[in-house]
Write a structure and sequence with these properties.
Blueprint (H helix, E strand, L loop, with lengths): L2 H27 L15 E11 L5 E13 L5 E4 L11 E4 L4 H37 L1
Antiparallel strand pairs: 1-2, 3-4
Length: 139
């Protein structure tokens, strides 16, 4: 692995975690959305990552980074809340609410933020090592 590919791997991680944070923000923003353009309540979205492989030989692939393969809808059941005065309430007074839990979204946000910070740290460490190597080369 070359030194420049370390930057590429970290950049891919930063991009993937940024997209994860965007999805978390969308989920939190729609925590109470009972009516969408597709019809029905909002469904929570999840980011699915995949490993990017670099073909180094015919026998094995080596990991080169990560990327978002898709943003999938969470199939978990929607919540029913008794609110007879709500415009989207059914005949019995229950409203079908999104399957978004703010607590779960906050955990995802913290995890994505920590992963983002780790990738920034790797980039800074790689840059520092390259600068030290240049200093040694000048002597």
């Amino acid at each position: 692995m070359s030194k420049l590919s370390a930057f590429d791997i970290s950049a891919m991680g930063l991009s993937a975690q940024r997209e994860r944070l965007d999805v978390v923000a969308e989920n939190i923003a729609n925590v109470n959305t009972t009516r969408t353009s597709q019809g029905g309540p909002y469904r929570r979205k999840e980011v699915v990552f995949e490993t990017v492989l670099q073909d180094q030989s015919l026998l094995s692939d080596s990991p080169e980074g990560v990327r978002v393969s898709e943003v999938a809808r969470d199939p978990s059941p929607l919540k029913k809340v008794y609110e007879p005065g709500h415009p989207d309430a059914d005949a019995r007074g229950y409203v079908t609410m999104p399957n978004v839990s703010v607590v779960d979204e906050m955990v995802d946000m913290i995890s994505a933020t920590r992963s983002y910070e780790a990738n920034v740290t790797v980039m800074n460490s790689t840059k520092s090592m390259l600068m030290k190597a240049l200093e040694i080369g000048r002597r």
